[in-house]
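G., before I forget:
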Amino acid sequence: MRTPTWKRKHLDTVIATAVKLILFSAGPVRLVLEEDLRNELPFIMSRISRAPVINPVRQLSSGISSPETLPAGEFERTNVHSPEKRFRFYYFDIRCRGELARFILGAAGVDYEDIRVNLASWPALKDDTPFKTLPVLDFNGVQLGQSMAIARYLATEFGLRGRTPYEQALADSVAEAADDVLASHLEFMFEERSSKKENMKRVFMESTLPDFLLYLDQFQKVYSEEYGYIVGSKLTYADLAVYSLLEQLMSATIIDMNYFSYYKYPTELRKRIMSNGKLMRYINNRPRTDF
Amino acid sequence: MRTPTWKRKHLDTVIATAVKLILFSAGPVRLVLEEDLRNELPFIMSRISRAPVINPVRQLSSGISSPETLPAGEFERTNVHSPEKRFRFYYFDIRCRGELARFILGAAGVDYEDIRVNLASWPALKDDTPFKTLPVLDFNGVQLGQSMAIARYLATEFGLRGRTPYEQALADSVAEAADDVLASHLEFMFEERSSKKENMKRVFMESTLPDFLLYLDQFQKVYSEEYGYIVGSKLTYADLAVYSLLEQLMSATIIDMNYFSYYKYPTELRKRIMSNGKLMRYINNRPRTDF
Protein backbone atom coordinates (compact mmCIF):
# COMPACT_ATOMS: atom_id res chain seq x y z
CA MET A 1 0.00 0.00 0.00
CA ARG A 2 1.28 3.41 -0.95
CA THR A 3 1.93 5.71 2.03
CA PRO A 4 -0.39 8.75 1.81
CA THR A 5 1.22 12.09 0.87
CA TRP A 6 0.79 13.85 4.20
CA LYS A 7 2.26 10.91 6.08
CA ARG A 8 5.21 10.72 3.73
CA LYS A 9 5.89 14.39 4.41
CA HIS A 10 5.73 13.78 8.12
CA LEU A 11 7.96 10.75 7.87
CA ASP A 12 10.63 12.77 6.10
CA THR A 13 11.51 14.31 9.45
CA VAL A 14 12.19 10.87 10.89
CA ILE A 15 14.14 9.91 7.81
CA ALA A 16 16.30 13.03 7.85
CA THR A 17 17.09 12.49 11.51
CA ALA A 18 18.10 8.91 10.79
CA VAL A 19 20.34 10.04 7.95
CA LYS A 20 21.98 12.59 10.20
CA LEU A 21 22.61 9.95 12.88
CA ILE A 22 24.26 7.78 10.26
CA LEU A 23 26.28 10.66 8.83
CA PHE A 24 27.60 12.10 12.02
CA SER A 25 28.18 9.05 14.16
CA ALA A 26 31.53 7.26 14.39
CA GLY A 27 30.09 3.73 14.45
CA PRO A 28 26.95 1.86 13.42
CA VAL A 29 23.56 3.40 14.21
CA ARG A 30 20.45 1.67 15.53
CA LEU A 31 17.23 3.21 14.33
CA VAL A 32 14.61 3.15 17.12
CA LEU A 33 11.14 4.02 15.87
CA GLU A 34 8.04 4.95 17.81
CA GLU A 35 5.34 2.29 17.67
CA ASP A 36 3.06 3.97 15.16
CA LEU A 37 5.93 4.32 12.73
CA ARG A 38 7.17 0.72 12.86
CA ASN A 39 5.14 -0.52 9.92
CA GLU A 40 6.62 2.32 7.89
CA LEU A 41 10.12 0.92 8.19
CA PRO A 42 10.39 -0.36 4.60
CA PHE A 43 9.30 3.04 3.33
CA ILE A 44 11.75 4.81 5.68
CA MET A 45 14.63 2.63 4.60
CA SER A 46 13.80 3.15 0.93
CA ARG A 47 13.90 6.90 1.45
CA ILE A 48 17.08 7.12 3.51
CA SER A 49 19.29 7.03 0.46
CA ARG A 50 17.80 10.28 -0.85
CA ALA A 51 16.65 12.23 2.20
CA PRO A 52 17.52 15.92 2.55
CA VAL A 53 20.56 16.53 4.72
CA ILE A 54 21.57 19.78 6.32
CA ASN A 55 25.07 19.67 7.65
CA PRO A 56 25.87 21.60 10.81
CA VAL A 57 28.88 23.89 10.64
CA ARG A 58 30.87 21.91 13.16
CA GLN A 59 31.11 19.08 10.62
CA LEU A 60 33.14 21.02 8.10
CA SER A 61 36.63 20.98 9.49
CA SER A 62 36.45 17.35 10.55
CA GLY A 63 35.18 16.26 7.16
CA ILE A 64 33.36 13.02 6.51
CA SER A 65 35.72 10.12 6.93
CA SER A 66 33.59 7.22 5.73
CA PRO A 67 32.10 8.11 2.37
CA GLU A 68 30.45 4.70 2.10
CA THR A 69 27.98 5.75 4.82
CA LEU A 70 26.91 8.81 2.84
CA PRO A 71 23.47 8.79 1.28
CA ALA A 72 23.51 8.41 -2.47
CA GLY A 73 22.23 11.94 -3.19
CA GLU A 74 24.50 13.89 -5.50
CA PHE A 75 24.47 16.90 -3.21
CA GLU A 76 26.45 15.16 -0.50
CA ARG A 77 29.57 15.55 -2.60
CA THR A 78 29.64 19.14 -1.36
CA ASN A 79 30.81 17.94 2.04
CA VAL A 80 34.20 17.26 0.54
CA HIS A 81 35.60 20.74 0.13
CA SER A 82 38.92 21.41 -1.47
CA PRO A 83 40.59 23.51 1.25
CA GLU A 84 41.38 26.46 -1.04
CA LYS A 85 37.80 26.81 -2.25
CA ARG A 86 35.44 27.73 0.55
CA PHE A 87 32.48 28.37 -1.72
CA ARG A 88 30.54 26.23 -4.12
CA PHE A 89 27.78 27.91 -6.00
CA TYR A 90 25.07 25.75 -7.60
CA TYR A 91 22.78 27.11 -10.27
CA PHE A 92 21.51 26.26 -13.73
CA ASP A 93 23.69 27.18 -16.71
CA ILE A 94 21.95 30.52 -17.12
CA ARG A 95 22.34 33.98 -15.59
CA CYS A 96 18.82 34.88 -14.26
CA ARG A 97 18.63 34.44 -10.48
CA GLY A 98 22.24 33.24 -10.14
CA GLU A 99 24.31 35.90 -11.85
CA LEU A 100 24.27 38.40 -8.99
CA ALA A 101 26.06 35.97 -6.66
CA ARG A 102 28.57 35.16 -9.42
CA PHE A 103 29.13 38.90 -9.98
CA ILE A 104 29.81 39.43 -6.26
CA LEU A 105 32.24 36.51 -6.12
CA GLY A 106 33.82 37.79 -9.34
CA ALA A 107 34.15 41.40 -8.14
CA ALA A 108 35.69 40.13 -4.90
CA GLY A 109 38.18 38.01 -6.84
CA VAL A 110 37.17 34.87 -4.92
CA ASP A 111 38.19 31.48 -6.26
CA TYR A 112 35.01 29.43 -6.00
CA GLU A 113 33.41 26.47 -7.74
CA ASP A 114 30.83 27.69 -10.22
CA ILE A 115 28.75 24.53 -10.59
CA ARG A 116 26.30 24.61 -13.48
CA VAL A 117 23.48 22.13 -12.89
CA ASN A 118 21.98 20.73 -16.07
CA LEU A 119 18.24 20.27 -16.31
CA ALA A 120 18.56 16.48 -16.60
CA SER A 121 20.24 16.13 -13.21
CA TRP A 122 18.04 18.70 -11.44
CA PRO A 123 15.17 16.36 -10.41
CA ALA A 124 17.61 14.09 -8.54
CA LEU A 125 19.26 17.05 -6.83
CA LYS A 126 16.07 18.96 -5.99
CA ASP A 127 15.06 17.14 -2.81
CA ASP A 128 18.49 17.70 -1.31
CA THR A 129 18.45 21.48 -1.64
CA PRO A 130 17.07 23.88 0.94
CA PHE A 131 13.63 25.05 -0.18
CA LYS A 132 13.91 22.72 -3.23
CA THR A 133 15.19 25.56 -5.38
CA LEU A 134 18.43 26.80 -6.89
CA PRO A 135 20.66 28.76 -6.47
CA VAL A 136 22.36 27.22 -3.45
CA LEU A 137 25.58 28.43 -1.87
CA ASP A 138 27.59 25.80 -0.07
CA PHE A 139 30.05 27.24 2.44
CA ASN A 140 31.46 26.09 5.76
CA GLY A 141 29.27 22.98 5.48
CA VAL A 142 26.12 25.07 5.23
CA GLN A 143 23.84 24.96 2.23
CA LEU A 144 22.24 28.38 1.99
CA GLY A 145 19.19 28.83 -0.24
CA GLN A 146 17.32 31.84 -1.68
CA SER A 147 19.11 33.94 -4.28
CA MET A 148 18.87 37.27 -2.46
CA ALA A 149 19.91 35.79 0.91
CA ILE A 150 22.96 34.30 -0.83
CA ALA A 151 23.82 37.56 -2.59
CA ARG A 152 23.49 39.52 0.63
CA TYR A 153 25.60 37.10 2.61
CA LEU A 154 28.38 37.21 0.02
CA ALA A 155 28.12 41.00 -0.17
CA THR A 156 28.51 41.19 3.61
CA GLU A 157 31.45 38.78 3.53
CA PHE A 158 33.30 40.73 0.82
CA GLY A 159 32.60 44.34 1.76
CA LEU A 160 29.98 45.04 -0.90
CA ARG A 161 27.04 45.55 1.40
CA GLY A 162 27.28 49.26 2.35
CA ARG A 163 29.04 50.82 5.33
CA THR A 164 26.18 51.35 7.81
CA PRO A 165 22.83 49.68 8.54
CA TYR A 166 21.31 52.70 6.86
CA GLU A 167 23.34 52.34 3.63
CA GLN A 168 22.72 48.61 3.75
CA ALA A 169 18.96 49.11 3.90
CA LEU A 170 19.09 51.43 0.89
CA ALA A 171 21.29 48.99 -1.04
CA ASP A 172 18.91 46.16 -0.11
CA SER A 173 15.91 48.09 -1.40
CA VAL A 174 17.61 48.74 -4.76
CA ALA A 175 18.85 45.15 -5.09
CA GLU A 176 15.40 43.78 -4.26
CA ALA A 177 13.66 46.16 -6.63
CA ALA A 178 16.08 45.06 -9.39
CA ASP A 179 15.15 41.48 -8.55
CA ASP A 180 11.46 42.40 -8.91
CA VAL A 181 12.13 43.95 -12.33
CA LEU A 182 14.00 40.80 -13.34
CA ALA A 183 11.01 38.73 -12.17
CA SER A 184 8.67 40.82 -14.36
CA HIS A 185 10.97 40.24 -17.30
CA LEU A 186 11.11 36.48 -16.74
CA GLU A 187 7.34 36.42 -16.35
CA PHE A 188 6.65 37.72 -19.85
CA MET A 189 9.56 35.79 -21.34
CA PHE A 190 7.96 32.54 -20.17
CA GLU A 191 4.34 33.56 -20.86
CA GLU A 192 2.96 31.31 -23.59
CA ARG A 193 -0.22 33.10 -24.62
CA SER A 194 1.05 35.59 -27.19
CA SER A 195 -1.50 38.38 -26.66
CA LYS A 196 -0.90 38.32 -22.90
CA LYS A 197 2.85 38.21 -23.50
CA GLU A 198 2.70 41.33 -25.70
CA ASN A 199 0.68 43.19 -23.13
CA MET A 200 3.06 42.24 -20.31
CA LYS A 201 6.00 43.33 -22.41
CA ARG A 202 4.37 46.68 -23.15
CA VAL A 203 3.78 47.39 -19.44
CA PHE A 204 7.37 46.38 -18.74
CA MET A 205 8.82 48.70 -21.39
CA GLU A 206 6.54 51.67 -20.76
CA SER A 207 6.34 51.59 -17.03
CA THR A 208 8.17 48.92 -14.96
CA LEU A 209 11.63 49.46 -16.43
CA PRO A 210 11.66 53.25 -16.98
CA ASP A 211 10.06 53.87 -13.57
CA PHE A 212 12.82 51.85 -11.94
CA LEU A 213 15.66 53.56 -13.82
CA LEU A 214 14.21 56.98 -13.30
CA TYR A 215 13.95 56.34 -9.58
CA LEU A 216 17.57 55.19 -9.50
CA ASP A 217 18.69 58.42 -11.20
CA GLN A 218 16.95 60.42 -8.48
CA PHE A 219 18.11 58.07 -5.76
CA GLN A 220 21.73 58.38 -6.84
CA LYS A 221 21.66 62.16 -6.64
CA VAL A 222 20.65 61.98 -3.02
CA TYR A 223 22.33 58.89 -1.59
CA SER A 224 25.46 58.53 -3.69
CA GLU A 225 28.69 60.31 -2.85
CA GLU A 226 30.63 59.02 -5.84
CA TYR A 227 29.81 59.17 -9.53
CA GLY A 228 28.51 55.78 -10.72
CA TYR A 229 27.65 54.12 -7.42
CA ILE A 230 24.08 54.04 -6.16
CA VAL A 231 24.79 54.28 -2.42
CA GLY A 232 27.70 55.97 -0.67
CA SER A 233 31.14 56.16 -2.25
CA LYS A 234 31.92 52.62 -3.33
CA LEU A 235 30.57 49.62 -5.15
CA THR A 236 27.77 47.70 -3.40
CA TYR A 237 25.88 44.62 -4.47
CA ALA A 238 22.99 46.93 -5.42
CA ASP A 239 25.13 48.29 -8.29
CA LEU A 240 25.89 44.73 -9.38
CA ALA A 241 22.20 43.81 -9.22
CA VAL A 242 21.28 46.71 -11.50
CA TYR A 243 24.11 45.99 -13.91
CA SER A 244 23.29 42.29 -14.07
CA LEU A 245 19.64 43.13 -14.75
CA LEU A 246 20.45 45.54 -17.59
CA GLU A 247 22.97 43.17 -19.09
CA GLN A 248 20.33 40.41 -19.16
CA LEU A 249 17.78 42.73 -20.75
CA MET A 250 20.33 43.55 -23.47
CA SER A 251 21.08 39.87 -24.08
CA ALA A 252 17.35 39.26 -24.46
CA THR A 253 17.29 42.24 -26.91
CA ILE A 254 14.70 43.95 -24.72
CA ILE A 255 16.89 47.07 -24.67
CA ASP A 256 20.03 48.10 -26.56
CA MET A 257 22.97 50.29 -25.66
CA ASN A 258 21.16 53.48 -26.76
CA TYR A 259 18.60 52.94 -24.05
CA PHE A 260 21.26 53.68 -21.45
CA SER A 261 21.64 57.26 -22.66
CA TYR A 262 18.20 58.21 -21.30
CA TYR A 263 19.40 57.56 -17.78
CA LYS A 264 22.47 58.87 -16.06
CA TYR A 265 23.19 56.27 -13.41
CA PRO A 266 23.33 53.15 -15.63
CA THR A 267 25.68 54.98 -18.01
CA GLU A 268 28.04 55.87 -15.18
CA LEU A 269 27.67 52.45 -13.60
CA ARG A 270 28.69 50.74 -16.84
CA LYS A 271 31.97 52.71 -16.90
CA ARG A 272 32.68 51.65 -13.33
CA ILE A 273 32.02 48.00 -14.09
CA MET A 274 34.18 48.11 -17.24
CA SER A 275 37.08 49.43 -15.19
CA ASN A 276 36.76 46.70 -12.53
CA GLY A 277 39.45 44.23 -13.59
CA LYS A 278 38.39 41.34 -11.40
CA LEU A 279 34.75 41.49 -12.43
CA MET A 280 35.62 41.89 -16.12
CA ARG A 281 37.82 38.82 -15.85
CA TYR A 282 34.75 36.87 -14.70
CA ILE A 283 32.51 38.43 -17.36
CA ASN A 284 34.98 37.72 -20.16
CA ASN A 285 35.56 34.13 -19.11
CA ARG A 286 32.13 32.96 -18.01
CA PRO A 287 30.25 30.32 -20.01
CA ARG A 288 28.29 31.81 -22.92
CA THR A 289 24.54 31.58 -22.23
CA ASP A 290 21.54 33.09 -24.01
CA PHE A 291 20.07 34.65 -20.87
CA MET B 1 0.58 68.53 -27.81
CA ARG B 2 1.02 65.72 -25.34
CA THR B 3 4.63 65.04 -24.33
CA PRO B 4 5.60 61.49 -25.41
CA THR B 5 5.98 58.89 -22.67
CA TRP B 6 9.72 58.41 -22.86
CA LYS B 7 10.33 62.15 -22.76
CA ARG B 8 8.05 62.58 -19.80
CA LYS B 9 10.02 59.91 -17.96
CA HIS B 10 13.24 61.70 -18.81
CA LEU B 11 11.84 65.05 -17.74
CA ASP B 12 10.94 63.71 -14.33
CA THR B 13 14.62 63.87 -13.42
CA VAL B 14 14.65 67.60 -14.20
CA ILE B 15 11.44 68.05 -12.29
CA ALA B 16 12.64 66.20 -9.20
CA THR B 17 15.82 68.26 -9.16
CA ALA B 18 13.77 71.46 -9.37
CA VAL B 19 11.57 70.32 -6.50
CA LYS B 20 14.59 69.54 -4.40
CA LEU B 21 16.07 73.00 -5.10
CA ILE B 22 12.81 74.55 -3.96
CA LEU B 23 12.57 72.35 -0.90
CA PHE B 24 16.08 72.76 0.39
CA SER B 25 16.86 76.37 -0.42
CA ALA B 26 16.32 79.21 2.01
CA GLY B 27 15.04 81.72 -0.56
CA PRO B 28 13.38 81.75 -4.00
CA VAL B 29 14.74 79.46 -6.68
CA ARG B 30 15.33 80.25 -10.35
CA LEU B 31 14.85 77.29 -12.65
CA VAL B 32 17.41 77.38 -15.48
CA LEU B 33 16.63 74.88 -18.22
CA GLU B 34 18.81 73.60 -21.02
CA GLU B 35 17.66 74.81 -24.44
CA ASP B 36 16.01 71.59 -25.61
CA LEU B 37 13.87 71.51 -22.50
CA ARG B 38 12.60 75.10 -22.64
CA ASN B 39 9.44 74.35 -24.55
CA GLU B 40 8.64 71.75 -21.92
CA LEU B 41 8.37 74.40 -19.22
CA PRO B 42 4.55 74.32 -18.92
CA PHE B 43 4.69 70.54 -18.55
CA ILE B 44 7.50 70.78 -16.00
CA MET B 45 5.64 73.37 -13.95
CA SER B 46 2.47 71.29 -14.02
CA ARG B 47 4.39 68.30 -12.68
CA ILE B 48 6.36 70.06 -9.95
CA SER B 49 3.47 69.90 -7.52
CA ARG B 50 3.47 66.11 -7.59
CA ALA B 51 7.04 65.07 -8.41
CA PRO B 52 8.73 62.33 -6.40
CA VAL B 53 10.91 63.69 -3.65
CA ILE B 54 13.60 61.82 -1.81
CA ASN B 55 14.77 63.66 1.23
CA PRO B 56 18.41 63.37 2.23
CA VAL B 57 19.07 62.46 5.83
CA ARG B 58 20.71 65.76 6.68
CA GLN B 59 17.34 67.47 6.25
CA LEU B 60 15.67 65.66 9.10
CA SER B 61 16.94 67.43 12.15
CA SER B 62 16.63 70.90 10.64
CA GLY B 63 13.08 70.23 9.53
CA ILE B 64 11.32 72.13 6.79
CA SER B 65 10.66 75.67 7.90
CA SER B 66 8.49 76.95 5.08
CA PRO B 67 5.69 74.48 4.46
CA GLU B 68 4.16 76.74 1.79
CA THR B 69 7.06 75.90 -0.53
CA LEU B 70 6.37 72.16 -0.21
CA PRO B 71 4.91 70.38 -3.20
CA ALA B 72 1.30 69.41 -2.80
CA GLY B 73 1.92 65.61 -2.75
CA GLU B 74 0.43 63.90 0.27
CA PHE B 75 3.65 62.08 1.01
CA GLU B 76 5.53 65.25 1.90
CA ARG B 77 3.72 65.37 5.21
CA THR B 78 6.19 62.74 6.35
CA ASN B 79 8.89 65.39 6.60
CA VAL B 80 7.23 66.69 9.73
CA HIS B 81 8.03 64.01 12.27
CA SER B 82 6.75 64.10 15.78
CA PRO B 83 10.00 63.80 17.73
CA GLU B 84 8.88 60.77 19.77
CA LYS B 85 7.92 58.75 16.69
CA ARG B 86 10.89 58.06 14.46
CA PHE B 87 9.06 55.62 12.22
CA ARG B 88 6.07 55.90 9.98
CA PHE B 89 4.97 52.76 8.23
CA TYR B 90 2.73 53.04 5.16
CA TYR B 91 0.79 50.09 3.84
CA PHE B 92 -2.71 49.14 2.79
CA ASP B 93 -5.18 48.12 5.51
CA ILE B 94 -4.28 44.46 5.13
CA ARG B 95 -1.57 42.17 6.49
CA CYS B 96 0.03 40.55 3.40
CA ARG B 97 3.37 42.17 2.61
CA GLY B 98 3.18 44.68 5.47
CA GLU B 99 2.56 42.55 8.54
CA LEU B 100 6.14 41.39 9.03
CA ALA B 101 7.37 44.96 9.54
CA ARG B 102 4.48 45.63 11.93
CA PHE B 103 5.34 42.44 13.84
CA ILE B 104 8.97 43.53 14.20
CA LEU B 105 7.99 46.99 15.42
CA GLY B 106 5.44 45.35 17.73
CA ALA B 107 7.89 42.81 19.15
CA ALA B 108 10.41 45.60 19.74
CA GLY B 109 7.78 47.67 21.53
CA VAL B 110 8.42 50.67 19.27
CA ASP B 111 5.90 53.50 19.19
CA TYR B 112 5.43 54.16 15.47
CA GLU B 113 2.75 55.48 13.16
CA ASP B 114 0.93 52.61 11.51
CA ILE B 115 -0.56 54.43 8.51
CA ARG B 116 -3.16 52.42 6.62
CA VAL B 117 -3.50 53.72 3.05
CA ASN B 118 -6.94 53.25 1.58
CA LEU B 119 -7.26 52.16 -2.03
CA ALA B 120 -8.94 55.43 -3.02
CA SER B 121 -5.96 57.55 -2.02
CA TRP B 122 -3.31 55.14 -3.35
CA PRO B 123 -3.19 56.43 -6.97
CA ALA B 124 -2.34 59.95 -5.73
CA LEU B 125 0.32 58.63 -3.37
CA LYS B 126 1.85 56.10 -5.76
CA ASP B 127 4.14 58.41 -7.72
CA ASP B 128 5.68 59.72 -4.52
CA THR B 129 6.77 56.34 -3.21
CA PRO B 130 10.07 54.65 -3.97
CA PHE B 131 9.52 51.98 -6.64
CA LYS B 132 5.83 53.03 -6.80
CA THR B 133 4.88 50.32 -4.34
CA LEU B 134 3.88 49.93 -0.71
CA PRO B 135 4.97 49.22 1.98
CA VAL B 136 7.17 52.23 2.64
CA LEU B 137 9.03 52.93 5.86
CA ASP B 138 9.71 56.56 6.58
CA PHE B 139 12.54 57.12 9.05
CA ASN B 140 15.16 59.79 9.56
CA GLY B 141 13.81 61.57 6.48
CA VAL B 142 14.39 58.50 4.31
CA GLN B 143 11.60 56.71 2.52
CA LEU B 144 12.65 53.11 2.26
CA GLY B 145 10.80 50.81 -0.15
CA GLN B 146 10.60 47.01 -0.64
CA SER B 147 8.95 44.95 2.08
CA MET B 148 11.87 42.64 2.81
CA ALA B 149 14.43 45.48 2.84
CA ILE B 150 12.21 47.28 5.35
CA ALA B 151 11.77 44.19 7.52
CA ARG B 152 15.50 43.50 7.50
CA TYR B 153 16.40 47.06 8.36
CA LEU B 154 13.99 47.09 11.31
CA ALA B 155 15.22 43.67 12.43
CA THR B 156 18.80 44.98 12.39
CA GLU B 157 17.79 48.13 14.27
CA PHE B 158 15.96 46.19 17.01
CA GLY B 159 18.20 43.16 17.50
CA LEU B 160 16.03 40.65 15.65
CA ARG B 161 18.41 39.93 12.80
CA GLY B 162 20.67 37.15 14.21
CA ARG B 163 23.97 37.50 16.03
CA THR B 164 26.52 36.85 13.27
CA PRO B 165 26.63 37.30 9.48
CA TYR B 166 26.22 33.55 9.33
CA GLU B 167 23.06 33.47 11.49
CA GLN B 168 21.79 36.50 9.59
CA ALA B 169 22.19 34.71 6.26
CA LEU B 170 20.25 31.72 7.56
CA ALA B 171 17.52 33.95 8.99
CA ASP B 172 17.36 35.83 5.67
CA SER B 173 16.93 32.61 3.73
CA VAL B 174 14.03 31.50 5.94
CA ALA B 175 12.37 34.93 5.87
CA GLU B 176 12.68 35.11 2.09
CA ALA B 177 11.40 31.59 1.61
CA ALA B 178 8.39 32.47 3.81
CA ASP B 179 7.85 35.51 1.59
CA ASP B 180 7.92 33.20 -1.47
CA VAL B 181 5.31 30.92 0.12
CA LEU B 182 3.17 33.97 0.88
CA ALA B 183 3.53 35.05 -2.77
CA SER B 184 2.33 31.61 -3.93
CA HIS B 185 -0.67 31.93 -1.64
CA LEU B 186 -1.56 35.41 -2.90
CA GLU B 187 -1.16 34.19 -6.46
CA PHE B 188 -3.90 31.59 -6.22
CA MET B 189 -6.05 33.81 -4.01
CA PHE B 190 -6.15 36.40 -6.81
CA GLU B 191 -6.36 33.94 -9.70
CA GLU B 192 -9.72 34.40 -11.42
CA ARG B 193 -9.94 31.31 -13.60
CA SER B 194 -11.43 28.76 -11.22
CA SER B 195 -9.86 25.58 -12.68
CA LYS B 196 -6.40 27.17 -12.62
CA LYS B 197 -7.05 28.47 -9.10
CA GLU B 198 -7.94 24.96 -7.87
CA ASN B 199 -4.82 23.51 -9.41
CA MET B 200 -2.59 26.20 -7.89
CA LYS B 201 -4.18 25.63 -4.51
CA ARG B 202 -3.61 21.89 -4.76
CA VAL B 203 0.11 22.35 -5.52
CA PHE B 204 0.34 24.81 -2.64
CA MET B 205 -1.30 22.43 -0.14
CA GLU B 206 0.44 19.25 -1.28
CA SER B 207 3.88 20.54 -1.97
CA THR B 208 4.77 24.24 -1.47
CA LEU B 209 3.56 24.56 2.12
CA PRO B 210 4.45 21.10 3.55
CA ASP B 211 7.87 21.17 1.86
CA PHE B 212 8.58 24.51 3.50
CA LEU B 213 7.43 23.44 6.97
CA LEU B 214 9.21 20.13 6.76
CA TYR B 215 12.42 21.90 5.83
CA LEU B 216 12.01 24.26 8.78
CA ASP B 217 11.62 21.30 11.17
CA GLN B 218 14.90 19.89 9.91
CA PHE B 219 16.54 23.30 9.81
CA GLN B 220 15.61 24.00 13.41
CA LYS B 221 17.18 20.81 14.65
CA VAL B 222 20.50 21.86 13.19
CA TYR B 223 20.66 25.63 13.51
CA SER B 224 18.53 26.36 16.54
CA GLU B 225 19.92 26.33 20.05
CA GLU B 226 16.64 27.11 21.77
CA TYR B 227 13.29 25.38 21.52
CA GLY B 228 10.94 27.40 19.28
CA TYR B 229 13.39 29.67 17.48
CA ILE B 230 14.58 28.85 14.00
CA VAL B 231 18.14 30.22 14.27
CA GLY B 232 20.36 30.48 17.34
CA SER B 233 18.90 31.04 20.78
CA LYS B 234 16.56 33.99 20.40
CA LEU B 235 13.78 35.43 18.32
CA THR B 236 14.74 36.65 14.83
CA TYR B 237 12.64 38.22 12.14
CA ALA B 238 12.66 34.82 10.40
CA ASP B 239 10.47 33.45 13.21
CA LEU B 240 8.13 36.40 12.81
CA ALA B 241 7.98 35.89 9.03
CA VAL B 242 6.96 32.25 9.48
CA TYR B 243 4.40 33.08 12.16
CA SER B 244 2.91 35.90 10.12
CA LEU B 245 2.64 33.58 7.10
CA LEU B 246 0.89 30.81 9.07
CA GLU B 247 -1.43 33.27 10.74
CA GLN B 248 -2.48 34.63 7.35
CA LEU B 249 -3.05 31.12 6.00
CA MET B 250 -5.30 30.41 8.98
CA SER B 251 -7.26 33.65 8.47
CA ALA B 252 -7.77 32.65 4.85
CA THR B 253 -8.96 29.22 6.13
CA ILE B 254 -6.24 27.52 4.07
CA ILE B 255 -5.09 25.69 7.19
CA ASP B 256 -6.48 25.31 10.69
CA MET B 257 -4.89 24.84 14.10
CA ASN B 258 -4.71 21.03 13.67
CA TYR B 259 -2.35 21.49 10.78
CA PHE B 260 0.31 22.75 13.17
CA SER B 261 0.51 19.39 14.94
CA TYR B 262 2.18 17.76 11.91
CA TYR B 263 5.19 20.01 12.36
CA LYS B 264 7.21 20.64 15.46
CA TYR B 265 8.70 24.07 14.87
CA PRO B 266 5.47 26.01 14.18
CA THR B 267 3.92 24.49 17.30
CA GLU B 268 6.84 25.60 19.44
CA LEU B 269 7.03 28.95 17.70
CA ARG B 270 3.39 29.66 18.45
CA LYS B 271 3.99 29.19 22.19
CA ARG B 272 6.91 31.61 22.04
CA ILE B 273 4.86 34.22 20.23
CA MET B 274 1.93 33.85 22.67
CA SER B 275 4.29 34.52 25.55
CA ASN B 276 5.75 37.68 23.98
CA GLY B 277 3.80 40.42 25.73
CA LYS B 278 4.77 43.29 23.46
CA LEU B 279 3.95 41.44 20.28
CA MET B 280 0.65 40.14 21.67
CA ARG B 281 -0.28 43.70 22.60
CA TYR B 282 0.11 44.63 18.92
CA ILE B 283 -1.74 41.51 17.72
CA ASN B 284 -4.64 42.05 20.12
CA ASN B 285 -5.01 45.73 19.26
CA ARG B 286 -4.38 45.82 15.53
CA PRO B 287 -7.18 46.70 13.11
CA ARG B 288 -9.29 43.66 12.17
CA THR B 289 -8.69 42.72 8.53
CA ASP B 290 -9.74 39.68 6.50
CA PHE B 291 -6.22 38.88 5.31
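The CA atoms of residues 19 and 48 of chain A lie 6 Å apart. Chain A touches chain B through 53 residues (CB under 8 Å).

More on Monday.
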